[in-house]
Amino acid sequence: MRQSKIELLRFLCALGVIFFHVGGIEELWPSWLYVVFSPFAEVPIPIFIIITGYMSFNNKKNRGVYYLITCFYYYLLFLLLETLINIENENFVFTNLLTGGSRWWYLWSMIPIYFVGPFYNIISKTFSKYQLLFFIVILLSVFYLTSEIKYSFPPSLGNFVYLSCGYLIGNWLNRYEKDIKIFIKLWFSYIYIISMLIIEIIIFATIKYVDDSPIGPHVLILAISIFTIFNNFKIKNNKFINFLGSLSLSFYLFHYSLFEVILIYLDNYINTYDRNLLLIIYFFITTLSTFIFSIIIIFPINLLIKNTNKLYNFIYSFIYEKISNKMKKVKIDNNN
Question: Could you tell me which residue ranges the Acyltransferase domain spans (predicted)?
């Protein structure tokens, strides 16, 4: 069941991804506006996986197949959109799209996470509070000492370990966050967020450097802090907010394709503007165009996913029943 406070966070993270990609292009880099908001542009990926672990904690069903079906239809739409956008581009090579490029690294990396998710849920329910925390710290240590994120296909083992840590953190927060006094966790979260903002500004002002990596331990703590704040909001269930949250995957996958088109058509007209103003203009137009595109595709693609999943469940149940009946018959014949 969707929780509006979580769906609001999910949607804002999708906007953060747009801001990250728009503000990070060479034409706009660096801008003070990007520096100020860069901490919030770093955290969407860790927050997405924390949300997955949090919301899946009590889910006993394996959602791996459903996730594969979802990826399949979004992948086909991605190929179609990119082909239409580049239909007049002489340098366009369709085969270069097949791996999805850097935009699909997260979705490819999440496939094994969805399949092992129920196993992680069992671990989280079996371990004590500190045992699970110790296990997460060990996994993170292994990742930071031996691995790195691979932003291409196929995903690396490091991707799996890092996302597993995020999933388990979501599990831990679902089970134990309420044990922490609310004023302690909220004050820590607000102080940490403000500190990150100040540090980013000071670093940029002194050495012109922006740390926008989404995988550092400081970013993971920032993601937990932001998640904690939103998770303690008192928001009633709201259909519109839930709808916005349902658009987050479409925002994540298709905004950059639309942004590239916008950049081509507008660059000659506004490239002399201040970088901060350009960032605002490009971010607003990209967000609006992605929102319109997402509204157009969300209902038909959800219908396809829903019906395909029903078909899969029917076929699976049919085959399972046939095999079970056959095994029962063999057992009866052996007993006779």
Answer: 5-297
